[in-house]
Amino acid sequence: MTIKEFLVSFLMPEKCYETFFVEFHPHVACFVFVLNKIFGFWILLDALLEQLPQLLKILWRRSAVGLSLTSALLQLYACSCPVLYAAANSFPLYSWGERLLTLVQSVAIVFLIVHYRGKTMKGLWLLSAYTAAMFLLGSYAAAAVVSLLHESRLAAAIASKGFQARMNHINGHTGQLSSASVLLSCAGSLGLTFVTLQERESFFLTAAHILSTCVSCVLLAQICCYRSRKTILKNRNR
């Protein structure tokens, strides 16, 4: 596959390719189209892999130091809502399978945080209660309740990032927080913000995505700042 075939197949129509690479004309509509495509890929990548680097880092380091349990629980709630909504409305699995994968990763992260704090039984009870709650909501909750839960997922995700940022500030370090997960989250939030602005969604939804992007950027900045400071201190102590 040539570069042209790749670009035309995945990123832009042939007309835009000709405009960019033959005529060398920066056409605004084509530029926006390409950005939408790129951000679409980022959003999908974020949905599939955001939690995976964090999970792998916890397992590799055998530690969850610096990770906020409140943040993880809110993230679990945010991941549960789309799955619950899709299951309650009998959507085909292929349309929400990636959400289920993210949910499993979030469940594992919550359990590992509790486990590495020396409270394994508490973690098992927590997961049992969560499973029971999901089953009851999926089986007996009214459609209006499920819809309300689904609409609250973004607020929960923003709060999750906020609690983690607060813990980082209190601790003065980011602990086992995965920079890859934060970077994916930041890119995904930025992509959703861009797409929302293009589609001219409601003001509150757009504002929520912008806020989510800002909090993700705060987390990313904390990782960079605290690790840079740690490196400087190490060099001074040599």
Structure description:
It is found in: Membrane. Belongs to the MPDU1 (TC 2.A.43.3) family. The chain is mainly alpha-helical and 238 residues long. The protein has one domain. It is built from 11 helices and no strands. It has helices spanning 3-10, 14-21, 28-49, 51-61, 69-88, 97-115, 120-140, 143-151, 153-171, 179-199, 203-236.
Terminal residue distance: 52 Å
As a whole number of angstroms, the C-alpha radius of gyration is 21 Å
Unreliable runs:
none
Number of DSSP E strands = 0
How big a fraction of the residues is strand?
under 5%
Mean pLDDT rating: 83
- The helix count comes to 11
What is the molecular shape? Answer: globular
SSE string, helix = H, strand = E? Answer: HHHHHHHHHHH
- Counting helices, strands and paired strands, the structural category is mainly alpha
Fraction of residues in helix: over 70%
**Biggest pleated sheet:** none
Keywords summarizing the entry:
mainly alpha, 238 residues
Question: In a few lines, what is going on in this structure?
Answer:
This is Solute carrier family 66 member 3. This protein is mainly alpha-helical and 238 residues long. It contains eleven helices and no strands.
